[in-house]
Design goal:
Blueprint: E1 3-8, H1 12-23, E2 28-32, H2 35-45, E3 48-51, E4 66-71, H3 75-87, E5 92-94, H4 106-110, E6 116-118, H5 127-139, E7 144-153, H6 169-174, E8 180-184, E9 187-191, E10 197-202, E11 206-213, H7 219-222, E12 228-235, H8 239-248, E13 257-259, E14 262-264, H9 266-277, E15 284-294, E16 297-306, H10 315-332, E17 341-343, H11 345-350, H12 352-363, E18 370-375
């Protein structure tokens, strides 16, 4: 049996990607370690599934049988998994942020191979980078780039941390632990995310709090000529103070401690607890904005998505999973920056033709962008 796409990861994001691919007639098989996750996605989408091992040997069974792997794996294993897929000769479209790894390491993996990879094919990084490429192209370069993207509950009242979680809990908490990178006067600096906070207004939505997040990724080397860049995560006001408290109490520590004769990492325990407490209300929204500045001009793209009552897909599933599925479709159509080697999302924004195709793809899943421009007074 041959397939168009192997969706690697049957979690929230993989489910959304498979949903879109299957509904558009692609032949899909879903791979995961979890029988429960595979049973859920198989029953709901009527898609073929395969339980796999964590050692990557199972990939050999699919050589010559799939066109591309569309992956959305947890951060701790994402880089090694993409590396394994490419080293075995598979085309890859990956939504995961590859944690803190430098994606350029994969250049050695793909060298001499007739394979491609689309990296950061999610929402942030991903969609934010595409929009960054567009504002860079439209302004003919940038003096400053500010990116904003965050998933929050539609109603924060009564929710601990004034949030809900619609993606990986361990990935969510990890945002507050590691230092985040930004570019200041041409230099990359590392900053405690909870020490770089402020407020931002989303037109039509109101004012939100933000903190620095580590989402620039490939922009750090592809946009070296931009002297000031940062990515921020919007949250409801009051969120940062609550997270700062649990961090100071040690609940986000990765250092093992002994509890009842067992060694546990507090952040892993916290992730399990909040997975139960903060996933009860799936009604979320995702706020995204890319703002580029050049001299006295600015261009910005805005997108705001909400939980879909009809499909039951969260806004985070839709924005991340549908970016993954649509980048996968573009790859299958040959709409890539380069047919072999690594493709980065900002490059799709820099290319007007590819950007227009991307915008049309997203429009088909009801994700649209509002563009505004003006002068800075």
């Amino acid at each position: 049996m041959k397939y168009d796409v192997l969706v690697w990861g049957a979690g929230r994001i993989g489910y959304a990607a498979a949903y879109d691919l299957v509904n558009n007639g692609y032949k899909v098989i879903v791979a995961d370690l979890s029988e429960d996750a595979l049973r859920n996605i198989g029953d709901k989408l009527g898609v073929e599934t395969v339980k796999v091992s964590p050692d990557y040997s199972w990939l050999d069974d699919f050589k010559g049988k799939i066109e591309v792997i569309s992956s959305s794996l947890p951060g701790p294993v994402a880089f090694k998994s993409v590396e394994a897929g490419l080293s075995k000769g598979f085309n890859m479209v990956d939504a995961t942020s590859l944690t803190g790894e430098d994606p350029r390491k994969l250049n050695d993996v793909v060298a001499g191979k007739d394979v491609y990879a689309v990296l950061y094919a999610g929402v942030a990084p991903g969609m934010t980078q595409v929009l960054a490429g567009a504002v860079y192209r439209e302004l003919g370069g940038l003096d400053k780039l500010d990116l904003y993207c965050g998933g929050i509950p539609q109603d924060p009242e009564g929710k601990p941390l004034r949030t809900n979680i619609t993606w990986s809990p361990i990935g969510y908490l990890g945002m507050y632990v590691r230092k985040s990178r930004k570019v200041v006067n041409g230099e990359i600096v590392y900053v405690d995310p909870l020490e770089d906070v402020g407020t931002v207004v989303f037109p039509g939505e109101g004012e939100y709090e933000y903190f620095l997040s580590d989402g620039l990724r490939s922009l750090l080397f592809n946009f070296k000529d931009v002297p000031n860049m940062a990515e921020y995560s919007p949250r409801w006001k009051g969120h940062a103070d609550q997270v700062r408290l649990i961090r100071e109490l040690g609940f986000l520590s990765k250092e093992p401690i002994e509890v009842g004769g067992c060694m546990v990492r507090p952040i892993e325990v916290a992730a399990k607890v909040i997975d139960k407490q903060l996933t009860k209300d799936p009604r979320d929204k995702v706020l995204t904005m890319a703002v580029g500045y050049k001299a006295n001009r600015f261009v910005r793209y805005i997108n705001i998505e909400y939980y879909d009552e009809k499909t039951g897909l969260t806004a985070m599933q839709r924005t991340t999973g549908f970016n993954l599925s649509r980048f996968t479709m573009m790859a299958l159509d040959g709409d890539l920056v380069r047919d072999t080697g690594l493709n980065y999302p900002e490059e799709f924004g820099l290319d007007e033709g590819l950007f227009n195709k991307y915008v049309q793809h997203m429009k088909k899943v009801d994700i649209e962008f509002k563009r505004e421009e003006g002068t800075i007074k």
